[in-house]
Design goal:
Elements (H helix, E strand, L loop, with lengths): L17 E2 L2 H11 L6 E5 L7 H5 L5 E4 L3 H8 L8 E4 L8 H6 L8 E6 L5 H9 L5 E9 H8 L9 H9 E9 L4 E2 L6 E8 L10 H13 L5 H4 L6 H6 L13 H14 L7
Parallel strand pairs: 2-3, 2-5, 3-4, 5-6
Antiparallel strand pairs: 1-8, 6-9, 7-9
Helix pairs in contact: 5-7, 8-11
């Protein structure tokens, strides 16, 4: 299992921290449980800490790597190079449906995993949510605080836009915590692995996901304000009573269903100020 760091310096601009703890790696790979014949996609394979043990269990793996030097190393891998389909691109700009359609069995959904660069983890997850219909599950190493936010419920300080939107698209399951010492160089924060399973059918009915995102963003952008004030450009105060909501409430107390009700009201009443 090759996890050598020789010849490659972690690049700060790519947010690179390389996983090297064998026990943690085994736990992560066991959580993913990769099987031959699945459409497996790894984002940010780096020096192969997860790539190598996954390739030992399967016959083919697609990897998405932005760093040219690391992509070159993977192409020249002495043991697993012939198993790898290497996409040298920024995952934030990648069309994952096209990735699936170009694999040998495009009828199977993608299984996506990776030790994500923490500086792009949130926008990357929002990007992947757009392709949830093409994905069966995702396993990501993230900053522990982000995993806590993904799984947070209403009324907690970690609950926010990311919680609402992640839970609209997926079931969120924290898997394990990972200490800084499992990486080189060690990050300044604790990490955790999360499993995200896209819903076959969303848990709430939403007329426009775009409007749901805009309403959540506006409500949580000024989270200390009441929704009467933070959403005043979207919805008149009287509408909250119609929806059975207290206009004096703060965003962090509203459920996914509450945000869906507000977004649907905005769509149906056509207020352009909220980006419908």
């Amino acid at each position: 299992m090759s996890k050598t760091h020789l010849g490659h310096t972690a690049r700060k601009r790519f947010g690179q921290n390389f996983l090297h703890d064998d026990y943690v790696i085994e736990q992560i790979v066991n959580a993913i449980n990769p099987q031959t014949g699945e459409n497996l996609v790894e984002i940010g394979p780096g020096l192969g800490a997860l790539t190598d043990p996954v390739c030992e269990r399967v016959e083919a793996l697609t990897v998405v790597e932005l760093d040219r030097d690391l992509a070159k190393r993977l192409r020249q891998h002495p043991f697993h190079g012939d198993k790898l389909n290497i996409i040298e691109q920024d995952a934030l700009t990648l069309d994952f449906t096209t990735v699936k359609d170009n694999l040998p069995d495009p009828d199977k959904p993608l299984r996506v995993f990776g030790n994500l660069p923490y500086n792009i983890s949130t926008p990357l997850m929002f990007h992947l949510f757009d392709y949830a219909h093409s994905i069966s599950d995702m396993h990501f190493m993230l900053q522990k605080e982000v995993v806590t936010r993904l799984a947070a419920g209403p009324g907690t300080k970690n609950y926010g836009r990311l919680s609402v939107m992640a839970q609209y698209y997926c079931t969120v399951m924290p898997v394990l915590s990972v200490p800084p010492g499992a990486f080189k160089p060690p990050p300044k924060v604790d990490s955790a692995v999360v499993r995200l399973i896209p819903h076959a059918t969303p848990p709430v009915e939403v007329d426009s996901v775009h409007t749901l995102e805009r309403v959540c963003a506006q409500a949580f952008n000024q989270r200390r304000k009441t929704i009467r004030n933070s959403l005043k450009d979207c919805i008149e105060v009287s509408a909250f009573e119609t929806l059975g909501l207290n206009p004096g409430a703060r965003a962090e107390t509203l459920s996914l269903q509450d945000f869906a009700s507000i977004a649907n009201y905005v769509v149906q009443h056509g207020d352009p100020r909220c980006g419908t």
